[in-house]
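hiii, so i know i said id send this last week but things got crazy w the move. better late than never?? heres the sequnce for the chain we talked about at the cafe, plus the structure i predicted for it. fair warning i was half asleep when i ran it
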Amino acid sequence: MTEARGSARRTGTTHERHAPGTPCWVSLMVHGMAATQDFYHALFGWEFQPGPQPLGPYVRALLNGYEVAGIGRLPLDRHLPIAWTPYLGSDDVDATAEQVRSCGGTVGVGPLDAAQAGRLAIACDPMGAVFGVWQADDHLGTNLTGVPGTPVWNELLTYDTASVAPFYRTVFGYEEEPVVSPDFDYVTLHIEGRPVAGIHGVGHALPRDRGAHWMTYFQVVDADKTAERVADLGGHIVRAQCNTALGRMITVADPEGATFSVVSPLG
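okay and structure toks below
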């Protein structure tokens, strides 16, 4: 998937600062950083450089010189799921953390400073889905979107939208656009009139070993070929392909079990 390298600056969208509430970064905490970097380098063409390390060893993934994601090593004393975590922007992470608590969520880490990069907290909503909160200083978040190898969407998979949509609306100020359908429980979250994330209520279809969780989608040229490449690199396909509003989508997992979705344009 290295075809993104030559086209990123021509066709992608670069970002300077993300509006509060916008998913502005995605980060993955793993046991084997070297093997994980090798996997994503082979899959997306990412290069890596050291980042701030308030929670331990950490690197930032770059595509054509633009920062697109982070990978860190899990502390040995923390037994947490291996999962991609979106960070939602905030102008005041301490105030946001207080809002999380007052609305029934939990703050598990922070707020704390990440050197000169910014200030962060890691929290979970009332249904247990983990997300980060990021207050930018030197590090503004994901610098590039719109090309293969970059995040294209973040979606909360939960029991039902009614249980958690008020939490995210109150904490981050989202406007909501529900899908009017008797058999599809979905709400699109908007900031400043544009869609930035979604909440999908899937009821008992939630994985029992994970519960409610956020899913990151990465743009690719061909979802089917990318899924095959994932398997070749030691990962596996979690859910077979389907066509969505974003494009052709397949959910996969890397060698440590972190799930994510790859999506390519239809037609």
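btw The helical segments are 8-11, 33-44, 93-102, 161-172, 223-232. thought thatd interest u
miss u guys!!
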